[in-house]
Batch of 2 targets.
Target 1
Amino acid sequence: MRALSGWRPSLRMAWREVRRSRGRSILVLVMIALPVLAVTAADIVIATQDVSGVESMDRRIGAADASVSFTTGAGRVIQAFDPDDGMTWDSESDKPAPGVADVRRALGRDVRTVERWEGSTVVSTDKGRTDALAAEVDLADPLTAGLYDLTDGRWPRTEDEVVVNADLASRGPGLGEEVELASGDVRRVVGIAESTTYRSHPSIAGPVGSFGLSERTTDHTWLLGAGPVTWDDVLALNALGGTVVSRAVIAHPPPDSVLDPEIASWAGGTDDAWLAIVALVVVMALLEVVLLAGPAFAVTARRQSRTLALMAAAGGTPRQGRRAVLAHGLVLGSLAAVLGVGLGIVAGRLAVPVAQRWDSTWFGPFDVPWPHLLGIACFGLLGAILAAVVPAWIASRQDVVAVLGGRRGDRKASLRSPILGVVLLGAGVAGAAYGARSTSNGEFAIAASAVVAVLGMILLVPLVVVTLARVARRLPLVLRYAVRDAARHRTRTVPAVAAVAATVAGVVALGIALSSDELENRATYVPQVPMGDGVVSFGWNTDATAADADAVVAAAEKSVPGLRATAVQGVQTDRPDGSYTFLSFAAPGGPQQLLSSYGGTFGSDVLVADRVPPGDHLGIDAAGRERADSALAAGGVVALADGRLVDQVAGLDRVRARVEEMDAEGQPGAVRKRTFPGAVVTTGSHSIGPQAIVSPAAARRLGVPVVPANVLLDGASIGRGQQRDLDEAVSAVADQASVYVERGYRASGETVVVQLVLAALGAVLMLGGTLTATFLALSDARPDLATLGAVGASPRKRRGVAASYALVVGLVGAVLGAAVGFIPGIAVTYPLTGNSWDLGGTAASHYLDVPWLLIGGLVVVLPLLTAGIVWVSARPRLPMVARLD
Amino acid sequence: MNATLHLDDVTRVHGSGPTEVHALRGVSFRAHAGELVAVMGPSGSGKSTLLTLAGGLDTPTAGRVVVDGVDLAALGGAGRARMRRTSIGYVFQDFNLIPALTAAENVALPRELDGQRSRAARKAALAVLEEVGIPELADRFPDEMSGGQQQRVAIARAVVGERRLILADEPTGALDTDTGEEILRLLRARCDAGATGVLVTHEARHAAWADRVVFLRDGVVVDESGADPVDALLEPGMSR
Amino acid sequence: MSVKQALLALLEQGPMYGYQLRVEFETRTGSTWPLNVGQVYTTLNRLERDGLVAGEGVDDDGHVVYRITDEGRDEVAAWFTTPVARTQPPRDELAIKLALAVTVPGVDVGTVIQRQRTATMVALQDYTRLKRAGRAANPARPDDMAWSLVLDSLVFVAEAEIRWLDHCEARLRRAVRTAENTATFEAGQPREVNR
């Protein structure tokens, strides 16, 4: 109790100080609580999104105690406690599939079972057909409760009743309507039910036998109502060849030692890189919190110095004086931590539905990871204590004589820190250069050196501020005053400028990395066909007929007005029975290898036609097309070559084709070689396409089967909605056909979101730092403002002074931060965009895109905006000289 | 003759109810061009209030304050600020220089606030600093000057730009005797050159530099000393 | 006030006659304390009787010229080096007046004080005006410096007087307030007091 009693006066004083200077206390609270709030909310959203084993039980096995799945051809199964974490099986192809009796025998007791099949099926819609997730299970059985969520109607009772989810209902079959399956059978929709796992994909469910899944699916599942299914039960079922998801085992797993060693080696293994990143983020965030809250504590320390002196006069020791400062940090830190966590939970609760919208799987139940939150709260507390202690330590080294003489302002800047700062900055640059050059894990070297560089920059800020003050003579009055005053009160200015600079440096570095990455993705993107055109490909081993091709052409032209659809045939290289034909082409007298790669979405890598198909899909230019047309008309073969070989292939007029057959078991068969008159033309695009076009006569001579390969689409732009309709129309006439429309490179939504989040975070922190400094500066400057008023400054001048403070802090911080941020930003683009392979040798090995808009916004617009906000919100009246006689 | 400064039946009350303080009660006061008027009184007599009212830093509860023919109450805050930039100069007891600006910049402050270009304002400032005798301190900061030098800078700031009314609130309070006399000599010179000066002081010696001395007590003018000379003190051979 | 030593000090500069002495005295002290000739001659006679000066006969205009003796010189030296004693303060008319005003009923002491203060202030203003212009402003010769110092003494004395008057006023007001409070306390009701 002795220890605590020593703290009591300090804590009491701290509490009173907090209540006395409300403005400053609220500022500090906000500075510390905000990051805590943000991290808490993010953690909650992530934890909620993460559907852990236990949480997912209901959606995987409904109300059952376990489910067991038998895969066709599976012998003994080895699995982890949760088979999703790891599972493998021995292959035993001629074992008969186990049944319910086998399960009962393995478990040694009677169980209630509900059969379940899962797969996909094709369903007709208003516009045609679509793929849908299908499940066959008796939804009326209570054991299945939780697999689907019935929102309208009722569960299906007979074999011709089904439920669909809202997504499928919107495409066609709604409640009470009929839905046609691929087999031609018709079912009636009696209810709308959402799958508890998948949110945005069409899904349909019905009793066992509705969709004929048992013929198509390899996994036969039973839901078991067997009382708790223990690990021993699981092992017994594993021996039968069943994979078991057991509620009891997953909720209370036995010790890891009972796992099969093969599975045990998969699990675990924390990601070292992930840890490093987390550590880095924590350090930077802590730094930011200290820098932002520091100035407020500094001012408090200054004002407290008189109280501390009185305490010393009343018999207090220096240790008790230090305790007072620490107590202040403790009180505010605890308040802020509690506030931040509490509000963070609320914010997380509100953010979960918003985040859900972006995710296609359902989130789990609302999850509050309490251990994490405790850690976050401690982090906030630590930040507050540091922010309190550091300025107090600096203040204790103040020039006593100056303080007694009533001269406001800090000691002259020593030269020690700037030298250290230059050294650190140099180390940061060197580290970044090293990381840029190194071949592996350069990113970590760069990240570490970035932190070092930022620390060095922070040490240089005082020098910059003082130098700026010296050359301020040319500035207009209000700016001149703000700059000089900032230099005089470095204790409160430097942390704010440093906070802004550190933020901007981080944002600039990350922004450059992201943009350059995007640029690389964009530049290395290889379009498959010209922009806006499309291809309907029949798949590599289909048995589509010419009638199917015509039907697709008709359907396509009907779906999209103005579209030109051309059916093209090709050699059937993959056959349904498993046999394979391998073709290759060469030109005698020409280059060894004509194409660096081929394949693509054309349904076959060898097309069969008597002239080059219309449209630009193959990238053949006019001259080449002329040569190719004449060669094909003469019954020859046109081989395609890379664009860079254009000169070497221009004069070639013969093509040698080699055909190698392989049977269903993979045994090589006959090899045929034929030479044809023909041409070699170059494809202008880098995309992966067919390797040759052969005329029908040549195909007959080669003895290869010819089938419809694709339908080329061009001539009209195909919108997204139209593409989906087209998809369904095509599926209606040809099951295996798929539609591809070239839309160019699409930035993944994720990247855009990350950039926006980065910009928003940077803006918020900049705003926070600048406003802190301005608020404190204004309260410090009351005497000067009074003088200005007495000397005749108009009342609006106060706004000007406030805005100038904000401008100085924001601009200096942003410029410094941007300059330092370039170093790691540019350095990291080297390992990030370095290519170890390229297509056709034209891709650059380094991409650099500087997001000038982002940087310009941060460095120029944001400080001006902040100054503008301060201008608008500052109180216009100047404090008048209040003299008491 | 038009008075540069005219307080007409001015009353100033601070606070309300039981804690009311009557700083001035129905005070009428005039000061003319070329005249230096001293205001004396114990603390609580209202002398500083008189000065802040004259300078437009405060508004009377009743009565009018007229400077150069302009009723200060009729002007808004901005108008009064303009008066302080161009017509009225204020000298404080504790100098009130802005530490972040050099001496020349402090002196140039009213001109720059009024919109004059830095260069022209600096020139005017240097000229006035010369007048008060400290041209060499133009680029020093207030931290680097003695009290007397700072007060001279403050006076320079109050007179730059040919201000017509100079209000000085105990300008010699923090200074030693000789330096104080120097300050008063400066003020006197300005008034002789045509400005109007109002000087609040509790030092009789310094008040004696004025043409008129007004005595305030409890917010009321109780007496005023005119300017009739005492014959016996004439030097032999001189006549008035 | 005795001007004995002052005249002796003047005679030390050289022999003079009565009227000359008077002019010389008034010049150096700015006619602050005017002398009449009769007073001068009476003092000279006494000095001669005491052996500090000696008559030198008559000059061409018929004036009696006096000369300082050695004893006189000693006397002058002693006078300069001996501080003026303050054990017997000169009779101060103002102090006497105030003392009586306070104790004689029916006299408004406050008005007395205020009137005196204003008058002294006027005098102070005049002294200051003289200090600013004329010989005392920039003392070039020792005579001017002498005059300036005398003027300063008048200034300081006047200032001291005003300060004393302020002080008396404050004390009297405090005394009245205390008496009021005591009366209120004793009688239980406020009492009007003339001030």
Target 2
Amino acid sequence: MSPELLFIQALNGLQFGVLLFLMAAGLTLVFGIMSFINLAHGSLYMFGAYFAAAAYQATGSFLVSVGAGFCGVFVLGALIDRCGFFVLHRRDHLDQVLATFGVVLFSNEVARMIWGASPIFMELPESMADSISLFGLSYPAYRILIIAVGLVVAVGLYLLIERTRIGMLIRAGASNRSMVAALGVNIGWLNTFIFALGAGLAGLAGAMVGPILSVQPGMGDPILITTLVVIVIGGIGSIRGAFLGALVVGVVDTLGRTVMPFVLRQSLDPETANTVGPALSSLAVYVLMAVILALKPDGLFPVKKR
Amino acid sequence: MNTRQHAAAVALAMAAGSFSGASLADVRIGFLATLSGGGAALGQDMVDGFNLALEERGGKLGGQNIQLLKEDDQMKPDVGVQAVQKFIEKEKVDLVAGVTFSNVMMAVAKPLADADITFVGSNAGPAPLAGKLCSKAFFFASWQNDNQAEVLGKYATDKGYRKVYLMAPNYQSGRDQVVGFKRFYKGTVAGEVYTQLNQPDYSAELAQLQAAGADAVYAFFPGGMGVNFIKQFKQAGLLGRLPLLTASTVDGTQLPALKEMALGTLAGSFWGPDSANPASKAFVAAFEKKYGRIPSQYAAQAYDSALLIDSALKKTGGRVADKVALRNALRAADYASLRGAYRFGPNGFPIQDFHVFEVARDAGGRVSLKQVGTPLKAHQDAYAGECK
């Protein structure tokens, strides 16, 4: 395998990681600060993609479609938190898992009823559909845009949480919610804001992948599982952990899919390599998670205990 | 008093008897398809196609009133088996038709065969049922799973492609498709990649593909995977640069989500909506009028299944009790099929032509499939010889 190809694959891993970060940031915020496990996070991602596709079909503007994905799911997140999920905040984790899993099934059927069982149309505008040449291999320009958006969101979240008043309240609420409430802060609305922000980021991720993936019912389910792996590896509740964990998972998954079969083909006969390779590479991320949990049960970058 | 009550009861029983007698004279067909979950688009098209044939004939097939009982297998073999048992034991159906996915087909084959139920398949055609586990009561109005890959293998050989790169998801059907392609492809394999089932992102595989220096690509990505793959193949600047031969990747359920993005992709199938066959033209026009979309091959297969049943019931005068006569009538395949005339092999799979289609604009400017060749004529599957 040439160094150029390895570089391209690392770039692919980075891009996948950045996308995972958009998902993981919301999930880890909600879990870390509100102690709320939301399995329906993948459904919010799905709705982001659907909202973006609908907006794109209506306007033909890519910017509007991304805006619709983020804002639409931000509002949706605020609504479902106010209209039901807030009851679950005080319940134990098993109740939360069961209830939000029900929401996953419900959401998939709702999407099917509104938009049909077949994938719906979403494309890139001509201006962004080009590919650029890297070391003689063509690489889609849009993937570079995904990386850029992910990095901007990461910096933005850092500034929001570390440098603003609302970020200070979020951090304070995570440490001691009754004390913050006693100081006159409406912790209920603060939680709703956090939930809606996390939902909006999932919606943004959905909107960003709309042009490269199939927009269909249930599209959020596979990525939710990988996202859970990311926050476990990164350390639950930590934005920094989510960011670095997402990059680690993205790169390990991509290189596992490409380098592992290559290495196996050098040592085994092609028939066996073709059988064993795909099986092993799909395990790579989970093996990584098992090893990290064994060595560092709190994840790579746990939240500092206060 | 007692006698009057008795008489009333007898009258009631007789009335009920004559009523149920009338409904028993109807032919009862159980239609099993995947109508929820990720594969629902295919199953819905099958139901729509079958219903269209029924409606055109005033709810009758072969002049007989049809009671159509629909069940959803959710793409789960155990749910499919329960539905089939309900058809057989509770609903007492005369025929079972449909079945979308091969995993469900493999599971329901045994209960169907054990109960000696006549079956008309409308999509799934797994290899074991064409070979060792074949049944004289099963007729597939569709095709054997390997066929769509085989026709592309033949096409690649005819075109003189020397290094083809093969890609499929890592599960039974994906591996079968690669075997089918290789059966008719005489060049070298530049690479063989098996991706995870339902993998969304193919950027890593596409980078490898470019580095492999292939002169064509064969891909099998059914359902949403196909939409993902084609979008990303196009965005990597590969569509148009490398011939892309596909099976179940740009079919009628996926094209509406891809439109112009898929232009130029090649696909193997037994039928396409541009067929010049008069029966097919009438079907496509009627389907578009009723449902407002171009029919997929799954709709065509189910419609064709209904026509096949129609022809057999006509021949037997609607008598379904004589199973041998009914099956002989089905085996004759004596009707105006959408694909043109074909005959059944000993395993109940059609011996038929397979075409290659290109994704192109139709006369109305919509993105659809256009036939570009027929590499395999009167083609029989590779397993028929194993059917004893």
